[in-house]
Amino acid sequence: MEVDLPKVPLEAGLGPENPPCPVCGEPIFPWLELPGGAGLAHRCEECGLGILGPEGDRASVLADLESGDSGEGWITYENRDSTQARLTGGGWAGLETDHAFRFSPDAVELLLASDDRLVTDRRPRLGRSIPGMWQSLINTFTFGHNVALGAFGASRSVKAGQVWMRALDWFITAVLAVPVLILSIPLELIGTATGRCGRYSIRTTGP
Ligand SMILES: [Zn+2]
To answer: Could you give the number of structural domains in the chain?
Structure first.
């Protein structure tokens, strides 16, 4: 028998522990512990924004998004609503960037709309998102975070504290490299086909 539970609006959760999302105004909630003891990240359940440090304001979120501009009119961001982020949680390789926020496509559209702008084109970046899926899955087995991508200069990384842990991380990475790659390619392709690619580049109207 189904029980009719009273529906509580998200706004009811607003408070000092759950300040409003700088993009949509709904309360933010704890998301995950960042690798390397870097603190607790938060997320917005409504628009999907991920917040790795202070919640900031709309202007600081917009500036963070725009700092992903390649200079050729494309803004690139790691997708917090991607298959790889959903699947691996704290193992997600996309946590290791200099950005203070992690964007979902919904958060990007809302944020730009508040600046009277639109997304005019959006392209998946499989050349980076497949390695991202691969590293995210490997991260779920290692002490460190982004050990391989970090070694190749493709990402920041968090190394394990002890020498033996770092050695074991490399052993695990070597053993799992091929089988996890075989798994990563179809997973990321399926994710991309369903709008959940790990990394997107967008073009927008306006400045
Ligand atoms: Zn939000």
So the answer is: 1
The answer to whether residue 16 scores a pLDDT higher than 60 is yes
**Single pTM value for the model:** 0.90
Q: At 61, is the secondary structure helix, strand, or coil?
A: helix
Checking phi first, is residue 102 left (phi over 0); if not, alpha (psi -120 to 50) or beta?
beta
Dist. CA 104 → ligand 1 center (Å):
10
Of 48, 42, 203, 50, the C-alpha closest to 110 is 48
Phi, psi angles (nearest 5°) of residue 99: -75, 145
**pLDDT value at residue 5:** 62
**Ion ligand 1: residue ranges with CB closer than 5 A:** 21, 23-24, 44, 46-47, 49
Whether 97 maps to a domain, the answer reads yes
Stated length of the chain: 207
Range of the domain at 199: 10-204
Q: Check residue 207 and give its pLDDT.
A: 67
> Does a structural domain hold residue 5?
no
- CA atoms 4, 30, 110, 119: torsion sign: negative
Distance between CA 56 and CA 50 in Å, rounded? Answer: 12
The answer to whether residue 3 is domain-embedded is: no
